[in-house]
Amino acid sequence: TVGTFTAPPATAQMGGAAPAAEPAIEPAATAALDQMGAYLRTLKAFQVEAATSREEVLENGLKAQFANVTTILARMPDRLFAEALGDRQSRQYYYNGKEFTLYARRLTYYATVAAPPTVTELAATVDEKYGIEIPLVDLFLWGADGASSAGITAAVDLGASAIDGVTCTHYAFRQEGLDWQIWIQKGDFPLPKRLVLTTTTDEARPQFEANYTWNLAPSFNDEAFTFDPPADAKRIVFEEAAAAASK
């Protein structure tokens, strides 16, 4: 049924059996996600820069777009530095396998807490406990053991596409409340090159977009993952999400 028009059954039109419906989930599309996740798990060290834009819906219904450039340096499984520079805030994230620090550069505030032993555990812990999302966290979820595509209700292979001169395959997926597209590099290095998320629970359908540039042989030392506070930095304490919600 489309609108108020109901097409007659195919058997009545053709005088025979109805053709089989196209599958809602194309196996090749979900297999590509699995392949990408498996490849990400093999990366021991990497640097990735993401140019992102996020739409927000204002109270009057207008949409506003905010840009960010986020850089991540990771040595798996227990080192991470991330920097997010954008229109609205500037943040640095440090994780050295023992401590996690969030530094607000423009405000010169920082907070440090004890941290779990892996990046994937860190992402889950700081989100649940403090309501903090590690930048580009999907990269770690896709690469995590046990990552699942069970929530996907539609998946389509849209064919070849080029991102910054790199040949990719373009896929589209649907989950509850979210439509999303991803462009995965073809060949032996199935890296995500572009991501577009569309929120479907809001009639304005705001979008988030990220374009990734990868370096699989970054140069760094261990000091890159430990915060050394500037002289004017002021230490504060994270408020736990449960405590904030009870106020």
Fold topology:
Layout: H1 10-14, H2 27-42, E1 45-57, E2 63-75, E3 79-86, E4 90-95, E5 99-104, E6 109-114, H3 119-130, H4 137-142, E7 154-163, E8 166-175, E9 178-185, E10 192-199, E11 207-215, E12 234-235, H5 241-246
Parallel strand pairs: 6-12
Antiparallel strand pairs: 1-2, 1-11, 2-3, 3-4, 4-5, 5-6, 7-8, 8-9, 9-10, 10-11
**What is the number of strand segments?**
12
Strand content: 35-45%
Count of separate DSSP helical elements: 5
Which structural class matches the secondary elements?
alpha+beta
Order of helices and strands: HHEEEEEEHHEEEEEEH
The main sheet orders its strands as 7-8-9-10-11-1-2-3-4-5-6-12
Shape: globular
Describe this structure in words.
This protein has 247 residues and is an alpha+beta fold. The protein has 5 helices and 12 strands. Strand 1 and strand 2 (63-75) form a beta hairpin. The chain is globular, with a radius of gyration of 22 Å. The model is unreliable at 1-15 (pLDDT under 50).
How would you concisely characterize the structure shown here?
With 247 residues, the protein is an alpha+beta fold. It contains five helices and twelve strands.
Question: What keywords describe this structure?
Answer:
disordered N terminus, 5 helices, alpha+beta, 18% helix, twelve-stranded mixed β-sheet, globular, 247 residues
